[in-house]
Amino acid sequence: MARQARAIQTRTSILLAAAEVFDERGYSTATITEIIARAGVTKGALYFHFSSKEDLALGVIAAQLELGPLPAQRTKLQELADQGLLFAHQLQYDPLTRASVGLAMDQWSENAEGGNPFHGRPFQEWADRLTELLVEARERGELLPHVDPAETAELLSGAFTGIQWTSQVLCQRRDLTRRVIAMFRHLLPSVAMPQILPTLELSEERAVALLASRDAALEAEEAEADGDSAA
């Protein structure tokens, strides 16, 4: 178990270092050498976990959607809002999430050697996740009859992208959660059944509470796994 824990820690350290370098320099100009130095690992250790710079970037991108175990809510629209609030919080404080968004927005030329092959991919994955939630919300009678889940998901994803970029440019995303709440308050009335709207909780404090709940669930899972291993 100790060896496995060290391997997990090494992989996490490499991902965090890669995220920081991608976030600061962009995919095209980031180098494996710089990531190894930032992570404080050997070249062999990095290549044990990741086969290439592209593989590293894929690991960073995957982290964007790893929001962890969030508690089920009474409505799927609340779960959708919760994911947006937590994503906004992670964009402010989590380098993996910031780097994933950076990879999505990093402009590149298809003909340029070492260009960014991930341009736009995380946003499509996020839209796909929102579509799934909205389909479930429609099946449960939470959406107005005219609402198309895929179309609405694309709108929400695009609005979130513009809002987070504006917040980044103006104040390094310090007001991002407030802006995301304003987005939901303006857009949800156009898609949600009227009786659903008063039940939705949209607050800056909710993101912090969700994060605490997620971390507690993860700790419980790890404790259970350790107990099973000891048995």
What is the terminal separation in angstroms?
13 Å
Strand content bin: under 5%
CATH topology of the largest domain: Tetracycline Repressor, domain 2
Q: What's the number of helices?
A: 10
The assigned structural class equals mainly alpha
Strand and helix order: HHHHHHHHHH
**Largest sheet geometry:** none
What spatial form do the alpha-carbon principal axes imply?
globular
- Note poorly predicted spans: 108-114
How many strands? Answer: 0
In the residues, how many domains can be counted? Answer: 2
Please state the CA-atom Rg, rounded to the nearest Å: 19 Å
Question: Can you walk through the features of this model?
Answer:
The chain has 231 residues and is an all-alpha fold. The protein has 2 domains: 3-60 and 223-230, Homeodomain-like (Arc Repressor Mutant, subunit A); 64-217, Orthogonal Bundle (Tetracycline Repressor, domain 2), CATH 1.10.357. It has 10 helices and no strands. The chain has helices at 2-25, 32-39, 43-49, 53-64, 76-93, 95-105, 121-139, 149-171, 176-187, 204-230. It is globular and about 55 Å long. The two termini are 13 Å apart.
